[in-house]
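# step 3/5: fold
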Amino acid sequence: MTQVDFHFNAPDKLSYVCRLLRKASGQGRRVGVLADQDTSHLLNQMLWNLNAADFVTHCLLTDSPSMVEQSSVIFSSNWTGLTELQQLDVFLNLNDLPPPQLEGIQRLIEVVGPEERDRSSARQRWKHYSQLGFQINRFDLTSAKLN
């Protein structure tokens, strides 16, 4: 069964995503990130700007196959391409709509900022995942210490 984790109220959504990716990479996980091209490029640059000790191997799905194979984080707007990759442990959706074809996906993460537009689209995704019978976990970041 697919597990969906919603991280609500991320004060600075993309910075939080970088911390989440750093943590997952540090745990040896490989993450496929579904995002539009602009967001993918921005996150790519943000990860390059991390402290050297926090470096996360990452690339775009369109980079060389060897780079994709060696990276712990892969960004793409192409859901089918991401799901065809081997050995991805978790997927992160940064789009307003849920990804299509979720069969075989064990874990999906949704990060939601405090903006009403983001919260509204997250409610629709939550409803969609609920209708599919997925296990949903809610994490409210309002009082969380973000390191």
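# step 4/5: annotate
Residues 28 and 72 are 8 Å apart (CA to CA).
# step 5/5: archive (pending)
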